[in-house]
Design brief:
By secondary structure, the chain is an alpha/beta fold. The relative contact order is 0.15. It is globular. The protein has helices spanning 13-18, 20-26, 35-47, 139-146, 194-211, 228-244, 265-278, 284-293, 295-305, 311-331, 352-358, 361-367, 379-384, 386-389, 397-402, 420-429, 435-440, 474-477, 479-490, 494-507, and strands at residues 73-76, 96-102, 109-116, 126-130, 149-151, 157-159, 169-173, 183-184, 220-226, 253-261, 334-335, 338-342, 406-412, 444-448, 451-459, 462-467. Helix 5 (194-211) packs across helix 6 (228-244), helix 7 runs antiparallel to helix 9 (295-305) and helix 7 (265-278) runs parallel beside helix 10. Strands 1, 2, 3, 4, 7, 8, 9, 10, 13, 14, 15 and 16 form a twelve-stranded mixed sheet that branches. Strands 5-6 form a two-stranded antiparallel ribbon. Strands 11-12 form a two-stranded antiparallel ribbon.
């Protein structure tokens, strides 16, 4: 079997023992840490979205797997209470699929997914979306960001005018295992690093394209946001490696896109204070205090972590998050996903209609999920990934760029937690053959309709887009711009538009 969940040391004693200088830096400021502390943080994240999953993780004991098929099990389905049709095309005319696949290299895992054929053409690219957390289900994005439908308060579904299925064949997966409707009968299938996550997703994609060979030659793109800043580069590297080794079905990987992601923690955590000061969240004295006492401790902890995901990486999670928690102490009740907004009590967003909708018996019957619980976000998965949190996933990206696979990094300008400044800095610092030209490239307007929707930098396969008037969830805050971004990027014209505007500026 592939990797199983490690046994975690519930304190920082190990790393502090081996690093006395780090201990002296953080001993007064570090909160009580361990499994209880991380559980509190994970629960806080879930409650801020007004989500209350019945179960913490989908580990289902006692299932008789010998009676279940070993290949993919899916069905065409129609959600109940769907209002109207899309441009005269009924949902029956479109291919909407949901189902399970037994993960090949697992003990007893089943991964759940949704697949929505393009409203435009089956020849459109296949786009997979990965939600972060870690441990939050793909349905969060599906219904609140870029899926075909929105949930109305009366539990009916409305077509999303800016759903990404308008320009792509759209795939959502509940991952890592234990999230959403994905489940296992063995806790050893709870993943704790990107090797486990990316291998599961690669196995899933192999099964999906075997079941749907008509899409195997389509262009393929990996997208997502937040903690998917880890998942996405890892999956892109895994797919590319599989293609080069002629493993199974060739997946026509053309690019990967990360929205407001966490990819290079060493650079991104250091950017917190600069962003917070620039946006007026903290004062100069707070800035200097955090930079003097907490940032050096974080830098040292990340160096001990390295890139291999050891126990020191889990320790660095606790050390470095004192930077963020101290900023939030000064910031008060701002919504760190969108600093223009306030959080009322424990509530920053109200996504509770998701759980209400997914737990309806008519919906469960339509999807064929049986008695499996819907886990909107899992604290168990969150905690299991702590050893992975501070790993640098930028290290594998240059090789993908050199082989011509395109990368789009985009970020809403009002997000604090995975802010545009930290993302911009790691993208600019990344060493690859086109680094010098990318850094020197002009920043040009990204125009949607008659309005400037963002600022774009591009060179070769690399693009960085700062999105105006958006927070952490760009497709939710700026759906029209997000759809235009996806369409132009997958068609290879995002950088061409920027290049035309750059030439115009130069001529002027």
């Amino acid at each position: 079997m592939r990797n199983s969940i490690p046994i975690y040391v519930p304190s920082l004693l190990l790393v502090l023992f081996f690093s006395p200088s780090l201990s002296s830096l953080i001993s007064r400021d570090l909160p009580l840490v361990g499994s209880d502390y991380s559980s509190v943080l994970a629960t806080k994240l879930i409650r801020e979205l007004n989500l209350f999953p019945k179960e913490d993780v989908n580990v289902v004991h006692g299932r008789n797997y010998s009676l279940e098929p070993k290949r993919i099990v899916e069905k065409r389905f129609r959600f109940p209470n769907l209002v109207g049709s899309e441009s005269g095309v009924s949902v029956e005319d479109l291919g909407h699929h949901a189902g399970y696949y037994k993960i090949e290299h697992s003990y007893a895992a089943r991964m759940f997914y949704f697949f929505f054929e393009s409203r435009n053409s089956k020849k459109d690219p296949v786009v997979i979306w990965l939600t972060g957390g870690p441990g939050c289900s793909s349905e969060l994005a599906m219904f609140y960001e870029n899926g075909p439908f929105r949930i109305a308060d009366n539990m009916s579904l409305l077509w999303n005018e800016y759903g990404w299925d308008k320009v792509s064949n759209l795939l959502y997966v509940d991952q890592p295992i234990g999230t959403g409707f994905s489940y296992s009968a063995d806790r050893h299938d709870i993943r704790h690093d990107e090797d486990g996550v990316s291998n599961d997703l690669y196995d899933f994609l192999q099964a999906f394209f075997a079941e749907h060979p008509e899409y195997a030659e389509n262009d393929f793109y990996i997208t997502g946001e937040s903690y998917a800043g880890h998942y996405i580069p890892a999956l892109a590297a895994r797919v590319h490696r599989g293609n080069k080794a002629n493993e199974g079905i060739h997946i026509n990987l053309k690019g990967f896109a990360i929205g407001n992601g966490l990819t290079d923690p060493a650079i991104q955590y250091k950017a917190y204070t600069d962003y917070a000061l620039d946006m007026g969240i903290i004062q100069k004295a707070d800035y200097e205090h955090i930079n003097k006492l907490k940032v050096p401790a974080c830098e040292m902890a990340i160096k001990l972590c390295g890139t291999d995901g050891t126990i020191t990486c889990m320790a660095s999670y606790f050390v470095c998050n004192t930077i963020f928690s101290t900023i939030m102490e000064h910031a008060g009740d701002i919504n760190y996903y969108d600093i223009r907004k306030k959080c009322e009590g424990n509530l920053c967003y109200d996504f509770s209609n998701l759980e209400k909708f997914m737990n309806q018996q008519s919906v469960r019957d339509a999807l064929g999920v049986g008695d499996i619980d819907f886990v909107s976000c899992s604290t168990t998965v969150y905690q299991a990934m702590l050893v992975d949190w501070m790993r640098n996933l930028e290290v594998g990206i240059p090789a993908l760029l050199e082989d011509g696979i395109s990368l789009l990094i985009y970020a809403g300008e009002y997000d604090l937690i995975c802010n545009w400044l930290g993302n911009s800095r790691w993208v600019h610092a990344m060493e690859w053959s086109g680094q010098k030209e990318f850094v020197a490239s002009a920043e040009v307007p990204f125009v949607v309709g008659d309005s400037e929707a963002g600022l774009l930098k591009s060179h070769g396969p690399l693009s960085f887009l700062k999105v105006h008037d958006a927070g952490h969830m760009v497709p939710m805050d700026q759906p029209k711009a997000a759809l235009e971004m996806l369409n132009k990027w997958t068609q290879g014209s995002l950088s061409e538009v920027g290049g035309d505007q750059e030439k115009l500026v130069a001529d002027m």
